[in-house]
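Hey,

The postdoc asked me to send both predictions to you directly instead of through the lab channel. I've kept everything plain text so nothing gets mangled by the mail client. Protein one:
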Amino acid sequence: MIRAIILVILNAAHSGSGLVGALGTYFALLLVTIIIAVPVTAIRLMRPIPQIVAYSSAGSTLAVRYNRDSLDLALSIGTTSIAYSQIKDFFTIGDAVYLRAHRAKPITLPRQLFPDQALAIMGRPFGSHFVSVLSSPGQASKRKRTTVIASVATLVVVTATTMAIVVWQHSDSGEGSSPAPTIRASVPIGHVALGMTAYGDTAYVTSPGGALSVIDTATMTIKSVIPLGADPYGVVFDPETRNVYVAGYGADGTGWVSVIDANVNAVRTTIPLRASSTGRIAIDPDMHSVYVIGHRQNHTDGALDVIDTTSNTVVTEVPLDASADALAVNTATHAVYVGSDGPGMVIVLDGASRRVTTKFPFGTLIRGMAVDPDAHTLYVMGDVDQNLDGPRTLKVLDTLSGAVRATLPLDPVAGGIAVDPATHRVYVFEEQSNEKGISVEAHVRILDANTNSVTAKVTVSSGEKFLGAGPIAVDPATHRAYALDASTISAIGP
């Protein structure tokens, strides 16, 4: 139950940003308070009324002596002394008086034992309704004040907790008063770039010349250039083994994956693939699996080669029954998403069984995909229609049901897409065209995954310095994004 309550509050906090998120959290906490208070109050109301004790039989003589701060009851069972400050309940029931002291069973006494002079000594007259009697006449109003103070204190605690949760959520997601993202630094890499990944202040960039450039993103300098041969394309980093996997293909279309030791920046081995490679590659470190999209012999159907990273061998090839050109992995559920060319659909595989479990329709050619595992969200970038030079679109899919949560229009050329699951930011690298349809600007559009709204746009190149939009990657260790145009890598940050 506690886990469910926490999820309610956190989901309310994530339901929006700014005022919407604050209100969601506030009413979630208020609802939780009510849910807890109602059964507690009901239990107290359902408690049986304390048994009234008869202290004397019919015909017995009763006497009461009123002192300055207490009264003495002379009963058949003996004399009982009750301090006025200990009396909790004191009211009339017909010709009888109901009296209950703190931590004592209630008793009923004749009304005649309590003349007006006695009530004056006690400091409180009673009526036909409930009256609380303590040591002073103002005690009833004091209890009312206590109730009001408790109610106000509850609202203050709920409000303060709401503010703390919202501030924590916004600081964790990088929202709030942080500076607007901009280009922090850029470095030319000296060649046309095709693929990129980043981890721990290091970026790895492939080139069609058959090399892998290793860039220190803290200083934005090239540390090393590793020759690979043939044509490398996609690249991923394994934080478990600190190996870099580069997918490529030879002149005859045969696919291969080179394994580079990131500690020494040297090739450890090269793995031949069973299918001809497209160079699209993804990794699931927890499953010790690397996935590479390829084409089967007829070049119309796709295939997914699965590499075991513990042995660096291909362990299976999964037929896809359609050509594919986009790939993403959900590291939380270990699902693998493959974007097919046509008809456009997202093929979902179970990473454990390596079997196709379902397919989500997309409609047209899929250009790229990225996953936010914690939000159960898949971002699919593709064409609006069958016009290959037409505008692009971004669809936000629920990974559990495949339902489309939102659709956002993109510019005609969208180079790459990446997600930072920790900050729930989505980065899309696009090219903006002029009225003649000529690309004149490359920019990164940044979206808030909670609201699917654009929070910033960072221009990477424009005018005479325009170089186009290529891949984009997020460093999960530093939460910094890197955009790659034709031959320059740019760091994006506050």
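Protein two:
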Amino acid sequence: MKIIVVDDDDLYCELISHSVAALGHDVLSVDSARRALEEVRNGRSVDLIISDWMMPGMSGVDLCAEIRRQPRQGHVFFLLLTSRESREDYLEAMQAGADDFLIKPFDHEMLAAKIRAAERILDLQTELSESNAQLQQSNRELDEAYRNLQKDIQAAAKLQLGLLPPDEARFGRFLVSATLMPSSAVSGDIYNFFSLENGSFGLYSLDVAGHGPRAAMMSFAISRFIVDQGMAGKLGSAQPLGAHIAELNKTFQSAPPDNDYFTMLLATISDQGRMRISQAGHPHPIAVPDAGRSPYPLGQGGFAVGLLEGVTYDEFSVDLADLHRIVFYTDGVIECGDPSGRLFGIDRFQALLQATSALPLDEVIPTIKAALCEWRGLSEFDDDISIIIVEKVGSEQEAS
């Protein structure tokens, strides 16, 4: 260590300096506190100052206080030599910034022990300073990585939104209104609706387990698969809808420890008002009858996609003649929790759909969203939410 010994007594200063040098340290001896302070102010590197307390002009305590006021990178350990032993004296010195004391006349072994203790403390402080510097560098790198990740997520969110159809569409005598309310920037929910060659239209809604980037990446992959394999265009054929979901189940089999899976609903609606549906663990669509009658759920549920091989998926048909709307949705709607943890639930959702049955279609989804936000007490949700509403606006004769 680099050590300055300060004492106006030349003999004492020499004795201390000799003892310190014998321990292998670099020693500078000065005869006054002012000279020691000048050395420090002039940029001399110093780790430890051993100073007498009582000196003319500037005392050791005053020197300690001045050293503490100097702008420095590291800590200078300050050891005071004194014959004072009162509590008040120690408190005064510690308040000035002294680290330790050595009673005069000093003992060589005690001096050596004090210096070794100071060296250990300074080494620990150096290690801590280096660790803090490394931590700050790591934090800067993490901040940069986080900013880049956020940019990537925002780009992914834009890409995912680009895969969705328009919020509103018309297929013959049916209007469609839809929305996606992700719980984060990207969503595990995705849907689509599209015209089919036979004059009908098709739609699907899927919900990947979990939410956030991982679920979003899987929903993107599934959606691309449906497009790339031309599955959407095949829905108008006589092939059962469940066969298409079975193909997805075969392709997207999950494996431990991830066990990624998704629920799905696939449907086609003819312009004559006949709907075919295959359901794979997805929430039951809700039928909203004409004339303000009570809504009711459709379907049997089925098994989620990707968990078991060889699963078959049934299909059922619905006559839309007496129905005003069909509502497709993901479980984020009915599992939306209020501040006490109560779920919004299917009964409350059906009551809301009945209450909004007379509203224009373009006002229904905003009303549902407002009701969910009010229920939750926040404008953000724990889970992704997607809703598709199909409304019949014309008669079968008009379709003909």
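Summary for protein two, as requested: The CA atoms of residues 81 and 239 lie 97 Å apart.

Thanks,
C.
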